[in-house]
Automatic annotation (TrEMBL):
Transmembrane parts of this sequence: 25-44, 50-69, 81-107, 127-160
Source organism: Sphingomonas endophytica
Keyword RNA-binding among record annotations: no
InterPro entries to which the protein is assigned, alphabetical: GtrA_DPMS_TM (IPR007267)
Keyword field: Membrane, Transmembrane, Transmembrane helix
Recorded superkingdom: Bacteria
Protein name: Putative flippase GtrA
UniProt key word Transmembrane helix: yes
Record-annotated GtrA/DPMS transmembrane domain positions: 24-158
Membrane topology of this protein: Multi-pass membrane protein
Amino acid sequence: MTERTPLHGHDGTEASGRPVRLHRFALLSGIGWLIDFAIFNLLVALGVGLFAANAIGATCGVSFVFVTGRRYIFRDVRTGMAAAILAYAVWNLLAITAMSWAIAWLGELIAALLPTLLRALALSDPRLAAVLHALVAPVAKIALTPVSMYANFVAMGLIVERRLHFV
């Protein structure tokens, strides 16, 4: 009879040593990010500023990630639901505010540099400029997403399991 090896170690890794927890969180966060990104872009298209659009979209996305992550990723629950929600709300108030500011700042920087870049490349087609300008908000959000996702992963581990997880 063959000895069975556990698929997942107690430390969140597979028997092979790969960090399953982070991979699952990345997948779950990807879904939350799609929710966030869709709302963000819809609000930007409706004329809402980058800071407010990100704050609203991110709140929707992280709410989804918290509820599903607590159930499917961070199973060693050491924090009661009320305390976890409060801690996660405080964390996200700070994190979303910081990320919204960063996205707005990066968007403004890209928008300010765009005319200079177009002139340097001798591109004067106003349609191209309009398309590139429309991409400023999504590019700023996409550029900062990895930082946000990883910080949220570490925060979830601390809030739900009271452990620091890096992978």
